[in-house]
Amino acid sequence: MQMETITVNKSFKSEEYFINMGPQHPATHGVLRLLLTIDGEIIKKVEPDLGYIHRSIEKMCERDSYQQIVHLTDRMDYLSSHINNEAVCLAVENALQLEIPDRVKVIRTIIGELTRIASHTLWWGVMGMDVGALTTYFYGFRDRELINDIFEETCGARLTMNYNIPGGLMFDIHPNFVKRTKEFIAHFKTKLPEYDSLLTGNIIFQKRMKGVGILSKEDAISYGASGPVGRGSGYSCDVRKHHPYSALDKVTFNETLRQEGDSFARYQVRIQEMWESMSIIEQLIDNIPEGEHQVATNAVIKLPKGEFYQKVETARGELGVYIISTGTKSPYRLKFRSPGFSNLSLLNHIAVGGKIGDLVATMATLDLVIPDIDR
Amino acid sequence: MNNEALQNLISSWHPDLTFTEEGSQFLNISVQPEQLHNLMKQLKTNSDTHFDYLFCLTGVDWESALGVVYHLESTTHRHAVVVKVQTEDRENPTFDTVSDIWATAEFHEREVFDFFGIKFNNHPNLKRLFLTEDWDGYPLRKDYVDEINMVVK
């Protein structure tokens, strides 16, 4: 055998190889496929492969009416469905310059914050499960269930809410809403400290989280990180603070910031955010103004010619709705700037150099919801 | 900085830009493809503008032209601006990438390439993101036809 016949593929180092994670991997929380280039246990590159559940919602919007578009947004980030609905409704209402009753604003904000708590409790449950702590899953789902019951009573749905319509709410709140929300807050105030004693203080958990997946503030801004991912890196990006909408300008709350930028910082931001959300709800729940729960709009809504942009803070970060209207019943172009898409794009940056096990833990702190990325 | 001050400053760098606030809550800047990268770099690095946050990057098919819309915000000054670029070339529409200026543009530009067929010069990894490599056509273009999968009303 002559030496010249041996060819070496120069694009690889000899010890590097590919491994597929997903699309049916439990830690990807949906159909996301990651192409990992690894060297032993060390990650050299993470390349997400998307599109397994892409439904082309933006294309569908170009033929649908504005009322119909609201329903499609549930199916993006389904854990923030109410807030997604709100984003489209606010964009349409601002474009039409509709005066929305205070009652609607307050109810939207309360349910939005309940949605955030529900999303964060689910995240906390699966976060623990991703690092091998199964009990958290049951605790998280137990408390989220109570919020879903409140939603079910008021609007009939537990997940895809469709409670917002352009002009207000589909119907008024259920007579039990205030009472049950207060009961939940009282209950959750005793349960949230349990979360800390069960998981946050656990030394094994902390060693998996601290100093792992570090994202600097500059990179967070450059990658368009938002929500708890950005705030865990000390980047003040809370849309509720900087561009308040609905009743958020009437309440006082703190924007939770951590400077460390690691997985543990993102974890702590979400835990603290649940306290802040409870505080927002408490400020509003006894002061829901009387009045109408919707204002009349035309059966066929036509936005004036122009461009409209609305951003809201979902449980995952900044959702932007960008509507280009030519004055017809459907948008000419509608773009959803989804928080998960930008947050996923920085995964490669923070995972390279770490271990495969850390990738799973790091990804859990990004709190990805795949339909939000595959719109 | 308010819109008027922004317009004065930015037009002093590039006198041939077009500015408008009509039908939009932001100051809109239309730029020629050749100037795009230069302008974007200045918007980010100049300390008075400091647009360090690219919060939305949208591909648009205006039928007469294909284009990209960039929504920019400054996290220090908290002002915002919209930059628009377009080309009439539907066969081979190409702009310079801004992914070297804002890292988030890398994924967003891949999405625009995937759905509009707009190419980006110097992009580090320009290939389809959601659709498969052998997909025919660019679905978010207005002239895209798919008789089997699209419900047309």
Polypeptide structure, described:
The complex is a heterodimer of chains A (375) and B (153). Chain A is 47% helix and 12% strand. Chain A has 375 residues and is of the alpha+beta class. Chain A has one domain (55-373): Cytochrome-c3 Hydrogenase, chain B (Orthogonal Bundle). The longest helix of chain A has 29 residues, at 102-130. The radius of gyration of chain A is 22 Å and the shape is globular. Chain B is an alpha/beta fold and 153 residues long. Chain B has a single domain, classed as NADH:ubiquinone oxidoreductase Nqo5 subunit (Beta Polymerase, domain 2), CATH 3.30.460.80. Chain B has helices spanning 3-13, 33-45, 105-116; strands at residues 18-20, 27-31, 53-61, 66-73, 80-87, 94-96, 119-121. Chain B has a 5-stranded mixed sheet with strand order 1-2-5-4-3. Chain B has a two-stranded parallel ribbon with strand order 6-7. In chain B, a hairpin with a 6-residue loop joins strand 4 (66-73) and strand 5 (80-87). Chain B is globular and about 50 Å long. The model of chain B has no long low-confidence stretch (mean pLDDT 88). The chains are: A alpha+beta (375), B alpha/beta (153). At the A-B interface, helix 8, strand 6, strand 7, strand 8 and helix 12 of A face strand 3 and helix 3 of B.
